[in-house]
Design a protein that fits this description.
With about 750 residues, the protein is α/β, with parallel strands linked by helices. The chain is built from 21 helices and 21 strands.
């Protein structure tokens, strides 16, 4: 066959027709020269073609032929003394082909006929570049197929050859259109172009209406038509048909044979393998195979070893790689889902560990913790003290101790409450209810403030505002405790402490204290759950001083004193100094340390769970991918037969593993965020006795979650790498025979 020169930029229109005309003239010249010089030997004939004047071939009308652009340059084949043997040291030795010499010229239609097991399919695999000879040489399109690297063989299969299999070898989970477009996907053709080409080819075989149907739902005849359409996707010059009618009825088989004849008339080289003489009659030349040897009934003309080169093909785009890989993972939803959940558990545990570490550090550094009960030392009089209370001088002495940041006392009084102007929602009680009035901690020194059931906190330590307990509001005649908010109440003290004893701080000259109710709290914040109210520290202290002078009180102002340490490390030292002065003390450090120990153990448990989950997830991904390789061995063979390189197959499986990791990472991140919120809510409830300020013990960070997802993808990709390598190394001829 002659070599035609393609000038840059010639791709369509008159230039394309001129190039096709030059090739046809060159082919005719080559055929004529070969026939005149052929003497029965198998020596290749080289033909030199002089430049041919451009011939303007008249274009047929569009309604005469809608499918002009189906084929590429016709491929010639030559086999020189080819043998193919199977079996190794520990396997049975089989000689499939024995010293086969054969020439198939461009544009020939050759039938290879013979009984089962005679070597027909093996011969076809050698012609298609799916297998290599044990000895001898195979030339296709002028290329020594047996000596080409796998990369070049893949390009040969992608650009020059298409194989029509007896068992169709469609991918059942793909649509008909996607099956036809698969070679174009491997060739890196843009989505819109390959869809247009696929529909064009489906119209050729009469299946344009089934384009969106799943390939597995078609009849046998329809599937074979789809296989023919797929074979034409990349405009091949050589069509290899392996028993194309073996699985079809006579009518459907006749349609396929007519298609092959039509393609041969259009300029394709067609090699048909069959065991049926009736099918072989459709060919123009027959080669009989017997026990691995070829007997030509009609001698063919020698073919050339050089043909028009083609441009290096583009390869599958990364978007198509990801799409096909994820589509493969979606075919096994249960197995993929379980593997994804393993990754999600590991990533969620890791994210929670990091969130816990960050949240604890932030909580320990928070200003609110520095004013919470964690840094406080509560001081009480000794049990046998003459006056079980403290005066202002004792408070001042304790406040001057080293490492004391602030000091305040708790002032408590017992008396009666009354509503100054009863509202419509309050019933007047028979007698003014009794209750206790306690001082709140200084707002600027302590974060240990009660949680409100309704309303707000007092604005300052000097604001004449009060928080009523729910029980006191009910005792004052309000059907709903929140109904008391906004009303003025009057408190009259009977005793200057919480213990009603006639011998100590009894009020002989009462003083009224008018307060505005701004909030409702639970009675749990009062000693023994007694009814009463909580007022700002400065207001209660001033009221007690106003009572002390006219009633002649000499002390007992504070029932207890609270010292705020300047750091958590100095709490224990301060406690020991207080006890050395003869006072009782209580700290919340032990409670906090127990809580911190619990969180530490939880952190270790989560770390162990994360490591185990990630290990199991990695093993699960590896097992899933290995199983997928075994289940899809034939699919791998189909991909390679269509022209996929080993690298393409490798990337498809890696994309599948990475997709599982990405899905698991995203699910794990979402689970971690949800569990972190639940954990923060639970911790807030546990720490209400330590501080009224809420802390995010689990501090989730977007950057940490993104890193966790990336880790999931990396680990999944690494786990799927070995199975992907195994898939990439599959021999296409063996993979196609896999059941």
């Amino acid at each position: 066959m002659a070599t035609a020169v393609t000038e840059p930029g010639e791709s369509s229109g008159p230039k394309r027709r001129r190039r096709r005309a030059r090739r046809e003239v060159a082919a005719a010249a080559a055929a004529s020269s070969a026939e005149n010089g052929h003497n029965g030997q198998t020596t290749p004939v080289a033909v030199l073609v002089e430049p041919v004047p451009a011939i303007e071939a008249p274009a047929p009308p569009p309604d005469q032929d809608e499918f002009q652009d189906l084929l590429g340059q016709a491929v010639g084949l030559r086999l020189d003394a080819v043998s193919r043997e199977f079996g190794g040291r520990d396997e049975m030795h089989v000689a499939a082909l024995r010293n086969v010499t054969l020439d198939i010229g461009p544009c020939e239609f050759v039938a290879i006929i013979g009984p089962s097991g005679c070597g027909k399919s093996t011969l076809l695999s050698l012609m298609g570049g799916l297998d290599r000879p044990s000895s001898g040489h195979v030339y296709g399109a002028g290329l020594p197929l047996g000596e080409l690297p796998d990369r070049d063989l893949s390009d040969y299969r992608l650009q020059r050859v298409s194989t029509i299999f007896q068992t169709f070898n469609l991918i059942p989970s793909m649509t008909v259109e996607d099956n036809v477009a698969l070679p174009l996907t491997l060739a890196g053709v843009e989505l819109e172009d390959r869809r247009k080409r696929a529909r064009h080819l489906l119209a050729l075989v009469g299946l344009e209406k089934r384009a969106r149907a799943r390939a597995g739902r078609l009849s046998g005849g329809e599937q074979q038509k789809v296989a023919v359409a797929r074979a034409l996707a990349n405009r091949p010059g050589l069509i290899l048909a392996d028993e194309p009618t073996g699985s079809l009825d006579s009518a459907a088989g006749e349609v396929v044979l007519d298609l092959l004849q039509d393609l041969n008339r259009r300029g394709a080289t067609v090699v048909l393998v069959t065991h049926d003489p009736e099918v072989a009659r459709h060919a123009r030349r027959v080669v009989r195979m017997i026990d691995g040897q070829a007997i030509e009934l009609d001698a063919g003309r020698p073919t050339v070893r050089s043909q028009e080169p083609v441009d290096p093909p583009a390869r599958m785009h990364w978007r198509d790689t990801v799409k096909v890989g994820l589509g493969s993972a979606g075919r096994r939803p249960l197995r993929t889902g379980l593997t994804t959940m393993g990754v999600a558990i590991g990533i969620a545990a890791l994210s929670l560990i990091v969130a816990l570490a960050g949240g604890l550090q932030q909580a320990l550094d928070a200003p609110a913790l520095a004013t919470s009960q964690v840094h406080q030392v509560a001081v009480y009089p000794v049990a046998d003290a003459r006056i079980p209370a403290f005066d202002a001088a004792t408070l001042a002495t304790l406040g001057r101790l080293p490492h004391v940041r602030a000091a305040w006392g708790q002032i408590g009084m017992t008396g009666t409450f009354a509503v100054n102007a009863p509202s419509a929602g309050a019933a007047k009680p028979a007698a003014p209810p009794t209750g206790e009035l306690l001082s709140l901690p200084p707002l600027g020194s302590s974060s240990t403030l009660p949680s409100l059931a309704a309303g707000r906190m007092p604005r300052s330590d000097a604001a004449t505002e009060v928080l009523l307990t729910d029980s006191e509001a009910v005792a004052m005649g309000y059907r709903s405790p929140s109904g008391a908010i906004g009303t003025q109440v009057k408190f009259i003290a009977d005793y200057g402490d919480l213990v009603a004893a006639s011998s100590r701080n009894k009020v002989a000259k009462p003083v009224e204290l008018n307060l505005l109710v701004v909030g409702i709290v639970s009675g749990n914040y009062m000693p023994a759950g007694a009814p009463g109210a909580l007022a700002p520290y400065g207001v209660v202290r001033s009221y007690w001083s106003a009572l002390a002078q006219p009633n002649g009180w000499k002390g007992g102002e504070y029932s207890s004193v609270t010292l705020l340490a300047d750091s958590g490390l100095s709490v224990e030292t301060l406690r020991q100094r207080v006890e050395s002065l003869g006072f009782q003390s209580q700290t919340f450090g032990d409670q906090f340390r127990n809580f911190e120990d619990l969180l530490g153990k939880l952190r270790v448990a989560l770390l162990g769970l994360a490591l185990v989950a990630l290990l199991l997830a990695c093993l699960g991904i590896a097992n899933t991918m290995y199983t997928a390789v075994l289940e899809r061995t034939k699919e791998i063979g189909v991909l390679k037969a269509l022209g996929a390189r080993s690298r393409d197959v490798l990337l498809l499986f890696i994309a599948e593993a990475a997709g599982i990791g990405l899905a698991g990472g995203l699910v794990g991140a979402i689970v971690a965020v949800g569990l972190a919120r639940l954990g923060n809510s639970a911790v807030d409830r546990l720490t209400q006795s330590i501080t009224s300020t809420t802390f995010d013990v689990f501090r989730t960070d977007v950057a940490v979650l993104l890193i966790a997802v990336i880790i999931a993808v990396i680990l999944s990709t690494i786990s799927g790498l070995l199975p992907a390598l195994r898939a990439a190394r599959q021999d296409p001829s063996r993979a196609l025979r896999h059941e």
